[in-house]
Fold this protein.
Amino acid sequence: MAKLNFQNLPRTIWLEQDKSDGIWGLYLIDQTRLPLQGDILCCRTLEGVRTCVQSLAVRGAPALGVTAAMALAIWAVNEFDDSYVANDTAALDAAPENEFLAKLQAAVAEVSSWRPTAVNLAWGAQSMLEHVQQELNKIVAQQSIDNASKLAKIKDSMLVYAQQMAKDDEAANRAMGSLGATELKLGASPLTICNAGSLATAFYGTALGVIYSAYERDIIQHLWVTETRPVNQGARLTMWELTCVGVPATLITDSMAATVMSNGLATSIIVGADRICANGDTVNKIGTLSLAVLANHYGLPFYVVAPRSTIDAQSPNGAAVTIEQRDGREIAGVAASGVILPQDKNQFKALDLLTCNGASELVIKNGHQLDIARKGGGYAFDAWLAGTVSGAAVFNPAFDVTPAGLISAIVTQNAIFRPPFAF
Ligand code: MRU
């Protein structure tokens, strides 16, 4: 039996209390910088988490669900001002107008709006709200406890609930991994898009969870990975993750998918999902639809793997889903970041001078941009290199809809659904 090295894979997001000042932080591995750097970011505020979500430092539908719950727990313990409840007996009853609940509801609405397409973000936030409503009902009934202690209990329970959500997510991934592996034929060489791996979840992954499980059972030996323009989650994240754990994989550009399918090199397609509609239409990373059309043409099975929380009964079909439109610069150029390693004292001196007043923005001909800043003992850079004419019109939808009719099966943690889909 093949053995994978999961110990080489970091967790995607976690909560941790700083030992020096007792403040809770949401920690995450910065996916904008992988695979070249493995920076860990720490957010202590809702605003900090928003920046991470919108910049794609944390991304992937299940990871966004857990992030939403953790963000709300962080908000409650670090940002909600509870000084008023200490002596106010009415301030913490279970009524909807209750101050804590009202502010929490506003925070839930805000978190849910950060990205529109992956349903798990709103699901994670809403689940936390429901948890708090239940806790409030239980705790408020306890007359013997003062209001400040009641609120402290609720905050503690939010931290526990968010951490449990991460554990449940991993367990669901492992379950769909072993269920989905039974679908793959011995010796199959599947193809995947984007990153539906451990990095897109709390740990282990959805579509890649199936790959891991099938690899460890010696069902498959290899995976095809499309680079997934424009953000390159396939090239940057999936290839990195597969290298960490030890699954042999081959990277191709998005436009090579037809070639590897037509000549029998790729034998099935396996993808994650950002939202699965009530009729089975599946919204996933842009480029998924092209793969489904090709798979249909070449008679290859097309699998979607996602937790039940990605199934959205409120969206009857793909036309009902808002597709996130992202910054055109993702298409009009290439972003890169890294660390500059000065080779002698003159280079150190020059970089010190450049960065002594904070980040330095260098103006470069042809619209390229380069920022250099001090980081730790070194110098980090963030670059954007223009790849087309200045002012080019671009269209940048982040997701597309694969009609249910092109999907062979949808794998969840407790069932495999086949067309016609009824969840
Ligand atoms: O924009 P992203 O990186 O958050 O999009 C993620 C995806 O679309 C993935 O393909 C994935 O299948 C959904 S998460 C497992």
In short: The pocket of MRU is lined by residues 56, 59-62, 194, 196, 200, 206, 233, 271-274, 284-285, 398 (CB under 6 Å).
